[in-house]
Amino acid sequence: MDETYFLILLSVLMFVASYGIGFIPLTITFSESKLQLVSTFGAGLLVGTALAVIIPEGVRLLYMIIFSTQSKSKSEDTITKNNQIHDSNLSTLMGFTLVLGFILMLLIDQCSSKHGRSARCDVTATLGLVVHAAVDGVALGAAATTSHTEIEIIIFLAIMLHKAPAAFALVTFLLHEGLDKIRIKKHLLAFSLAAPLAALITFFGLSQEGKETLSSMNATGVAMLFSAGTFLYVATVHVLPEVTYRAGGILKKNQLFFLVLGTILPLFLNLIFHRND
Q: Distance between CA 183 and CA 189 in Å, rounded?
């Protein structure tokens, strides 16, 4: 299947699943314990995806710049000098991009908390989730430009396993805030559309000049590392502490199992997919 159509298919599935699961609290009561297990597994998957999939892939794309420079260089001295320059610049760029993604989510979180006590806390909470969902979409769109279907699928699963509970939690929160169902559906629609639209915009934006160009590799690598920073923030600062708090400070055996499983699963999936290539 063409990568463009495949991304469109994933984006549609993402929207339908997110909106559908978010719609559940408006109709029935859902088991809190099962949702907690899914959230725990999703937190592990976020960490594993960032560490074992997104960061290595982003680094690989950025270091392709060095190989491109080497192929154009004619002397061994020039190659050595280029390596030293690019190693220094890329190391700085990688660290800066990861930290920037982490800080962005930190600022969004703090702004949401600061205004959470006001009468418009429902809007602020939705806005924070929408921005994060959009950044998730950037990760998926950037992965699509690499033409590695396995990377797309892993990132898609990681996004959905925390996006679906987030949609459920958002609607539950808005119901507790006393919003009417029509307004809640509008909030849910905005949240559900954020990631698919961001994925498509990122994909076509990075693809504009051709996915095999140096600038495209650079932009794709930066986008993936930036999204890895946001993944790590959400998992380690928001999702994991929330799961631990609900468990009374210590995770139960089944929760710990799902957390570890979620963390190592992206690594094994990546190995399996690459072995079959």
A: 10
pLDDT of residue 71: 54
Contacts of 243 (CB under 8 A, 6+ apart): 36, 39, 40, 43, 251, 255, 259
pLDDT in tens, 37-49: 776 777 777 788 7
By three-state DSSP, how is residue 75 classified? Answer: coil
Tokens, residue 148? 């590695």
Phi, psi (degrees; rounded to nearest 5) at 190: -60, -45
pLDDT of residue 70: 53
Q: What distance in Å separates the CA atoms of residue 122 and residue 232, rounded to the nearest whole number?
A: 25
What is the spatial distance between Cα 169 and Cα 203, in angstroms, rounded to a whole number?
29
Structure tokens at 110: 């703090």
In this prediction, what percent of the chain has a pLDDT beyond 90? Answer: 11
Structural contact between residues 159 and 136, judged by C-beta atoms closer than 8 angstroms: yes
How far apart (Å, rounded) are the C-alpha atoms in residues 38 and 24? 15
Tokens linked to 183: 């307004």
Encode pLDDT of 174-211 as tens digits: 776 677 889 889 999 999 999 999 999 988 887 655 44
pTM of the model: 0.65
Specify whether the CB–CB gap between 138 and 226 falls below 8 A.
yes
Sign, CA dihedral 61-260-19-13, equals positive
Domain range annotation of the chain: 3-22+31-276
- Other C-beta atoms closer than 10 Å to the C-beta of 270 total 20
- Using alpha carbons, list the distances in angstroms from residue 128 to 10, 223, 227: 23, 19, 15
C-alpha 157/C-alpha 209 separation (Å) is: 28
